[in-house]
Amino acid sequence: MTATGLKQLSNALATPDQLSNSSSSIDGVPSDLETSIRVAGAQLTQTAGVLLGLSQDIIGQAIVIFTRFWLGADGEAYESTRPRYDVSAAALYMTAKLSFQPTSPRSVLNVYTLLCSSDTSPLWFVNPKGAPAEAPAMESYLLTEGEYQSARLTLLRIESVILRILSFDTHVALPHTIALTYLQTLGATRPAVARRVVEHLNAALLSPQLLYVTHQPNALAVAAIYLAAREDGIKLVDGNWWEVFDVDREELGFLVVGMRSLEGFMRREMEQWKNKTIPLLVDDVDSEIERRRMMVEGE
């Protein structure tokens, strides 16, 4: 395979400076709150993409773009790099625009208005009361012309900021197709195994360990296959087969543990934020930080 072909199957990974000095941490956001907001932003992106009828490939790329932007440019602080709903919207809009499924700014903004309303949203971290029993009236989330023009300008401005922070590198290689190719190579053709592999890869997009920006797609594919085979009781080829795909035992072990821990992490998140909203606006983040500071001072 040519060097260009190999590049298309790999990603630019986060640097140590980005991981230890994300823009949010520089801005004073506690690490646990930062993680909660980022994971909520990824879930918001996923749900919005589904409502817009976008393919999982486009949605996955948008989540990776969102995560890269959240990390900042090599630790560079920027006031808009806190994870929030308009960054999610801009990442999804931009990714779709560059794909075979472009969607209009109006459609994106209407969907985000629905999802970010504490009255109409089906998302547990936006609407703790739960999704309304009846579908909300369109008037409750369709923007007026004035609101739309203002929101559209914000969307396009943040899109330009994302491009600047990422140095216009919007390439994202996902591991899903690679994993299916590896399964065929290993002779593991059971549909149930393939389905479980894809489920693990989709869930890993929400990983608090930032698996998609710290490991290459081939390693993610191998870890999902290993885990799915173990869960389904499928014996793959003898020997350290993962080494054939350029993954060592240490990296495989880390990724498998990370993927397996996601379910427990999400349960803890839902318990921690039970009956509360995760702040997705800068002002709300500041209020949560102040609330925590006052609690510490009051002890």
Protein architecture, described:
The chain is an all-alpha fold and 299 residues long. The protein folds into 2 domains: 15-172, Cyclin-like (Cyclin A, domain 1, Orthogonal Bundle), CATH 1.10.472.10; 176-271, Orthogonal Bundle (Cyclin A, domain 1), CATH 1.10.472. Helix content is 61%, strand content 0%. The chain contains 14 helices and no strands. The chain has helices at 3-8, 16-20, 23-26, 31-51, 56-71, 85-97, 105-115, 145-165, 176-186, 191-203, 211-214, 217-232, 249-272, 282-298. The longest helix is centred in the last third of the chain and has 24 residues, at 249-272. It is globular. The model is unreliable at 74-83 (pLDDT under 50).
Key traits:
299 residues, mainly alpha, Cyclin A, domain 1, 14 helices
Topology:
Layout: H1 3-8, H2 16-20, H3 23-26, H4 31-51, H5 56-71, H6 85-97, H7 105-115, H8 145-165, H9 176-186, H10 191-203, H11 211-214, H12 217-232, H13 249-272, H14 282-298
Helix pairs in contact: 4-5, 4-6, 4-7, 5-6, 6-7, 6-8, 9-10, 9-12, 10-12, 12-13
InterPro entries: Cyclin-like_sf, Cyclin/Ssn8
Protein name: Cyclin
GO molecular function, one term: cyclin-dependent protein serine/threonine kinase regulator activity
